[in-house]
Amino acid sequence: MKVFTVRNGKQAMLAVVIVSALIAAVVYVASLPVTDRSGSVDPNESIVNPDPK
């Protein structure tokens, strides 16, 4: 399996920016409030365990 190698500083910076953007996007989506179908926020609902029943 070939390991990803960086040829120059620009590629390293691009890789850091892309990975950082992906991490930021995941954190943002995970921090959004959970809403039901009518659009109201349910403070007892969990993204991690959506159906605790």
Question: Which stretches of 5+ consecutive residues score pLDDT under 50?
Answer: none
Number-wise, the strands total: 0
In round numbers, the mean pLDDT is 76
Through-space gap between termini: 44 Å
Q: Helix proportion of residues, in percent?
A: 40-55%
Order of H and E elements: H
**Major β-sheet annotation:** none
The total count of helices amounts to 1
What is the approximate shape?
A: elongated
The radius of gyration computed from the alpha-carbon positions, rounded to a whole number of angstroms, is: 18 Å
Structural class: mainly alpha
Strand content: under 5%
Tell me what you see in this structure.
The N and C termini lie far apart (44 Å). Helices cover 43% and strands 0% of the residues. The chain is mainly α. The model has no long low-confidence stretch (mean pLDDT 76). It has one helix and no strands. The longest helix has 23 residues. Keywords: Membrane, Transmembrane, Transmembrane helix.
Key features of this structure:
single chain; elongated; mainly alpha; 53 residues
Secondary structure blueprint with pairings:
Elements lengths: L8 H23 L22
Summarize the structure.
The chain crosses the membrane at residues 12-31. Keywords: Membrane, Transmembrane, Transmembrane helix. The protein has 53 residues and is mostly helical.
